[in-house]
Prior knowledge:
single chain, CATH 1.10.630.10, 2 domains, 19 helices, 13 strands, metal-binding, oxidoreductase activity, acting on paired donors, with incorporation or reduction of molecular oxygen, iron ion binding, monooxygenase activity
Amino acid sequence: MDISFLFLLFLLLPILLILHKKNSSPTQTNFTPLHPYPILGNIPHIFKNRSRMLDWASDLIPLSPTFTSTVSPFIFTANPSNIQHILHSNFDNYPKGGFVSSAMHDFLGHGIFNSNGPLWRLQRKTASFEFNTKSIRSFIFDIVLRETIQVLIPILDHSITTNKILDLQDLLERFAFDNICNLAFGYNPESLAGTSDEGLRFFHAFDEASHIVVKRTGSTIPWQIKKLLNVGSEKRFRQSQGIVNEMVSKFVRLRRKQDDLLSRFADDPSNSDELLLDISINFMIAGRDTTPTALTWFFWILSSRPKIVKQILAEIKSVREKKNDNKDEFFEFEELREMHYLHAALSETMRLYPPVPLLLRVAVNDDVLPDGTGVKKGWYVMYNSYVMGRMKSLWGEDCMEVRPERWLVDGVYRPVSSYKYPVFHGGPRVCLGKEMAYIQMKAVVACVLERFEIEVVEERGEPQLSMTMRMKGGLPVRVKHRNNNTV
Length: 487
């Protein structure tokens, strides 16, 4: 046991003992795979696994006959009935909160991902309307088109000439960052092209700030102490946050009346500049992190599955032939929607490698989940979509195989319940950008695969939690021109 752990335990022990004593009497139906320690209860278990919550939850859940394990004050579940209850049936009893929201507050503030109640509903209503309008969809599509054809494709092509190995995960994160800045502010930081010092500074600051607030939840020394002393990661966070806030505040002050997302929220005079800053950063998180994470795992999976690549290429060719298109022309919106096999392949990847694998809610009042698990007021309930995607009871004996066909009925993509597949969440907080995320991913994949072969040059595949489940070490690839005879 290291000194830093003892120091942390000494500071927090009184509070944790009170919490444990108050909430340590679950109902008899709770499955508890770990034996609590005398006096300390489950506190040592929690501290030991504080920095590996996903792995820990993934180890404990399958031990339970109902796929719900209790380590009070935590409940880990992968039971679809429980998830429907938490996200829909008893939604108001399970808001966001607790230590995760506290750790994120400095960065996310009162934005849509870190708020509840009327403030959340107000942001949700405005965003929902905008994401369902034809103009915003066209705007997003135009951004993706321009960034893909004018920047991403030339970078991949140039790497062939120079025989350069690229970190595809890094490229995709920059690609997504430029896209979301264009959508939110009408501003292109050019982080993918690397042609703007200001834009690169903005990208790196945003990246570091988001990583640091996530790491707060597993920090050995309480992050509040480091923040108070302004040392280590908290000093870097303050510097990075300052750069991000400076940039975003500039756009908030301008409140340009044009076709960007910030202007839609700025039209409401009740939204203060501070709230507009929070709203902007939250939407930047949504647009920058999830899509590139999903695409990184997707290209990694394709690198060892040529049959799936062949099927995707055949579908792209079929769509092209309907309108006599050639590969120099960007796909139209409806053409991308016709790519059912590609849609299924992306869904299959996210089943096994969900961008957000573990989500936490806090119980407002005592409750009983559908599988009989008792929940005490103030307990943390975490649902695990990573485990769910690997359950034979939900997906069959071949659940660990990558098989896009499981999503197709007569060649047409068929979705499943969001409580069986909570990759885009469910209930009132279901992801607003789900359709546009698919369109962006399909656009990138179709354009890249049609032109290039992507070869992974180093062994990869280990998940690493940040804002999303990124690939540890990035995804180093070598790019080659595709032989058109194989399409």
